[in-house]
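Ticket #4471: structure export looks truncated?
Reporter: QA, pipeline team
Priority: medium

Steps to reproduce: submit the single chain below to the structure queue and open the exported record.
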Amino acid sequence: MLSHNVFFTLKDASEERCQKLVDACHHFLAPHDGIVFYAAGTLTADLTREVNDTAFHVALNVVFIDRAAHDAYQVSPKHLEFIASNKDDWSKVRVFDSDVAGAV
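Actual output as written to the record:
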């Protein structure tokens, strides 16, 4: 599986603007073939241990069944529309992609 984690820092970090981006994630990014896990939400502000990275406002976590599903998602019309519709609100975007395996 391929885990695709995206951390958005917004120009306007108000609760309203953060929720707008989370809602856009749900609308444009959740319904794609090959997704085995999807979630989007905001920073948990009260988790401030030394190891917590708090330099973002909205997080997106998508796990794809394989690399091919990830690659198809990257060029899908809905993904490209999400970027075009929201990129002006971002001051920084960090993407962390990793090959993962689950365990119980």
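Status: closed, not a bug. The export was complete when the record was re-opened. Leaving a note from the reviewer for reference: The chain is about 30% helix and 35% strand.
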